[in-house]
Amino acid sequence: MPVLVASDLDRTLIYSAAALALTMPDARAPRLLCVEVHESRPLSYMTETSAALLAELGDAAVFVPTTTRTRKQYQRINLPGPPPTYAICANGGHLLVDGVSDLDWHARVTSRLADECAPLDEVREHLMNTADPLWVRKHRIAEDLFAYLVVERELLPEDWVKELAVWAENRGWTVSLQGRKLYAVPKPLTKSAAMHEVARRTGAELTLAAGDSLLDADLLLAADRGWRPGHGELADAGWSAPEISALPERGVLAGERILREFLRGARQGAL
Asked: d(Cα 6, Cα 199) in Å, to the nearest integer?
């Protein structure tokens, strides 16, 4: 029986230097492997133990990287283990098959967005008109599907984020704050829908998932079992559900724990 493992990447399996949370004495810190380089600089890491676990997982299950990153941003990542046949990018807007976007899937997604929520241009204009340049560093459009801001987190007004969330909700969009990025994403653009499509294609009858942010909640709820780390948007909100395990580990060691749980679940499910 195929087991499908759909996992968020940033702050779930891979970590920037700022997100590592190496709170132990330096001499006891885990050895790290760089898995992403951007503009000739190391950007994302996992522990060497995590790298070995991920390589094992690639042999034990259908591993599907599942990310809000654009295709270009995802393709910078060099994960250990066999190259995944499937990957979910742009929060479900692109389903990659052997590294190439499935055009039929993308067309289905864009058609649904046009039918069910306000257009991207309206959201982009609202962000441009209401976000203060004092705390906004970048305005970005991702894959012509959603928008995000790079912000100075310590200067970002909480009230503005709450007001934006209400404004977006009324237009069929959702807002998620992850580190220094604030995302505005159409509600029908989900990781879970793409995960279900991969499960259909592979015949997987057991699905496992992990993630740390509000944009991962639908993925976790759609899986048979899920895990969230002790950091991130979901942990900060105390979010939980019956089949979701809230792990105590934070930072890069949480990624290691999640991979151990994936491996255990995949081996039990494949029996």
From this structure: 10
